[in-house]
Amino acid sequence: MDVETLRRAARLGADTALRPERFGALAYDFGTRRLSFVRRRSQARGALNEEFERGLDAPICLTWELTYACNLACVHCLSSSGRRDPRELTTQEAKAVIDELERMQVFYVNIGGGEPTVRKDFWELVEYATAHHVGVKFSTNGSRIDAHRAQWLRGNDYVDVQISLDGATAQVNDAVRGEGSYDTAIRAMEHLKGTGFKLSVVITRENVAQLDDFKAIADHFGAQLRLTRLRPSGRGADVWDTLHPTQQQQRIVYEWLLEHGQQVLTGDSFFHLAAYGQTLPGLNLCGAGRVVCLIDPVGDVYACPFAIHETFLAGNIREAGFAHVWRESDLFRELREPQAAGACSSCGMYDACRGGCMAAKFFTGLPLAGPDPECVLGHGEDALATATPRKSSVDHSIRRRAMVPVTVVERPCNESPV
Ligand code: SF4
Ligand code: SF4
């Protein structure tokens, strides 16, 4: 059955893009941002997760960090951003990437950094992407979202904005993201009110008690709340011990998500919590190299945005293009093979939890075949006692720091990042 026959059979409108896949097709509605799956009758059996684990023709969730430059210096930055890297992709190279994503039918990209809006060609690249049928979701600290830009975004159907905020109060937020960053984010949200933007929160030990407050802030601005797990990646490794939620708090997050999960986006952040008993909404597997990957500012392709380390480096788009890396790299082929459960194989919750997050295990020094450091049964904590944490192999921090107590208010960096 060809794609157009599938489109008719599934009664999909003309605004829905269809991408052929082994099991049928992936359908993405650019209006509702809804992703769905059209399966051939002959392949209607079997879980979609299994199909995902074998990898897709192109990523569903492609993160593209446009620059390592940033005007803040968040203590948990997953990419250790700060200074621009002189090797960053040029405007022409970035446009060539977009052309390739269009050919591969990557429906949208999650653009981040660094702070992507500090790139002089940022808005030009956003316009180029949407003109080439690649939707854009970009994450920002809000510092460059003024009334004029908000108005532009309001009129652009294919661009979604995500404002980062890690505390529902300035005190909690600014301890992580820097002094003044709470006010900056709130000002941006005021401009964006009613545009349906997303409010993105990394859950930490300091803000678990504020989950209801984050929801209230999102509701007040007509935004959708997105919660992300803190991973020990980038500078997150320096603060993971002090900031990652305690065992008791993980249970609170789980209960909260059970109650609100349908209204909150979580990506693949919390599938390890399924080991408490119920599966939560979201992607319930590690998609690294299978449905997820990262293009970093210099064109390196990693298995996942939280795995910036040479171990997870699949190739560089400057060599043979992104499609080649995605489809041919040895690393991605390996990740699409069935993974060993190791010490988790005897756990009754393995089918739900899948051993948790590869990046969290790697950077805390745990074996990839084995429990997540935040295993809800406590097996991760036991294993951590003898583990040696690893550091990301890339660091563009402006000021290197030792572990920062969360009560210390960090000043935003005032050096030019570009
Ligand atoms: S390594 Fe962790 S963050 Fe990356 S895709 Fe897997 S589960 Fe998600
Ligand atoms: S032992 Fe492994 S599979 Fe079981 S809950 Fe812990 S991380 Fe998940």
Multimerization state: single chain
Instruction: Describe the strand arrangement of the main beta sheet, using strand numbers.
Output: 9-8-7-6-5-4-10-11-12
What is the rounded distance between the termini? 50 Å
Bound molecules: iron/sulfur cluster
- SSE sequence, one letter per element: HEEEHEHEHEHEHHEHEHHEEEHHHHHH
Total helices: the number is 16
> Cα-atom Rg, whole angstroms?
20 Å
Structure notes:
Its EC number is 1.3.98.7, 4.1.99.26. Its cofactor is [4Fe-4S] cluster. InterPro entries: 4Fe4S-binding_SPASM_dom, Aldolase_TIM, Heme_synthase-like, MftB, MftC, Radical_SAM_PqqE_MftC-like, rSAM, rSAM_sf. GO terms for molecular function: 4 iron, 4 sulfur cluster binding; catalytic activity; metal ion binding. Residues 56-263 form the Radical SAM core domain. It is a single chain. The protein is α/β, with parallel strands linked by helices. Helix content is 31%, strand content 15%. It contains 16 helices and twelve strands. It has helices at 3-9, 48-53, 91-104, 122-131, 147-154, 170-177, 181-192, 211-220, 236-243, 247-260, 317-320, 322-328, 330-335, 350-353, 358-364, 379-384, and strands spanning 16-21, 24-29, 34-39, 61-65, 108-112, 135-140, 159-164, 198-203, 224-229, 292-295, 300-302, 313-316. It has a nine-stranded mixed sheet with strand order 9-8-7-6-5-4-10-11-12. A three-stranded antiparallel sheet has the order 1-2-3, with helices on one face. Strand 10 (292-295) and strand 11 (300-302) form a beta hairpin. The N and C termini lie far apart (50 Å). Residues 400-418 have low confidence and may be disordered. One iron/sulfur cluster binds at residues 268, 286-288, 292, 304, 306-307, 357-359.
